[in-house]
Design goal:
Elements: H1 2-7, E1 20-21, E2 24-25, H2 33-41, H3 65-72, H4 82-85, H5 92-102, H6 109-114, H7 133-139, H8 141-151, H9 163-173, H10 179-205, H11 211-227, H12 236-244
Antiparallel strand pairs: 1-2
Length: 253
């Protein structure tokens, strides 16, 4: 930068106005071939118009967070399970925890062992074996009873499915924007979130919750989320779902 300014016979802190006089370029004689080439192109630069900032990576030239994100992010193919996490009526904090769980990035006991952790890594609920993602959701006898209780109100999910089977089935059968599809995803994300939260409360605060307390939270969150919507058609299946969940049929139209 200093080399170029010296070649232009200008100070290092010079402004553009120092080489303009009444909208006419008035450069001092160039001292390098590079500067000669630059000055040859200057007549093509329009003068006499108001300057304005242009965000070149944006489609419209003005700053947009979405355009900036698209420019800087590492683009990869869509994963098949994205609609299990991000969907209409999804609860953001639950989607985030489920997103970590699907990728097996929660700090479960088995992962802590890999990192060299020397403390207790057994399941805080049943105390049987090392805690893992698949154990916590829903091989553990404690979390399994909560999950089965949820499925009594959500008969669209196979109660015998393990974690991977739940994901596989969900990617095929839960992706529609029907009441049943939204309900399955809400139940799944709320169950994962509240069981993980209860696990942390036991592990870090020593405050265990009962199965009934966790189940009540899950059912309340799902019911409350659906009650605030009116996007579903009034079909026999949807009326039956409303009866299962004690929902006012005003959510149907």
């Amino acid at each position: 930068m200093k080399y170029n300014t010296l070649n232009a016979s200008s100070r290092f802190d010079s402004k553009l106005s120092s080489v303009l006089n009444n909208s006419i370029w008035c450069w001092k004689p160039a001292r390098s071939e590079a500067l000669v080439e630059i000055q040859c192109h200057l007549p093509d630069v329009p003068l006499g118009i108001v300057d304005k900032p242009v965000w070149h990576i944006a489609r419209k030239g003005s700053y947009a967070c979405s355009d900036t994100w698209e420019f800087f992010r590492d683009k990869k193919p869509d994963v098949v399970w994205w609609h299990l996490i991000w969907f209409p009526l999804a609860i953001p904090k639950q989607s985030f925890i489920l997103w970590l769980a699907v990728q097996n990035r929660l700090t479960t006991g088995d992962r802590l062992l890999v990192w060299g952790f020397q403390g207790d890594v057994n399941c805080v609920f049943c105390r049987h074996g090392v805690e893992s993602r698949d154990h916590l959701f829903f091989e553990c006898s404690f979390s399994s009873r909560i999950w089965l209780a949820c499925l009594q109100r959500c008969p669209f999910i196979d109660p015998n499915s393990d974690w991977q089977s739940l994901l596989d089935d969900g990617c095929i059968h839960w992706k529609k924007k029907t009441l049943a599809g939204i309900l399955c995803r809400l139940v799944f994300s709320s169950a994962v979130y509240n069981i993980w939260r209860a696990r942390n409360e036991v592990k870090f605060q020593g405050h265990p919750k009962s199965e009934e307390q966790i189940l009540k939270l899950i059912l309340w969150e799902v019911r409350n989320r659906i009650s605030g919507s009116s996007r579903f058609n009034k079909t026999r299946e949807n009326i039956r779902i409303c009866q299962y969940w004690n929902l006012d049929c005003s959510v149907l139209h």
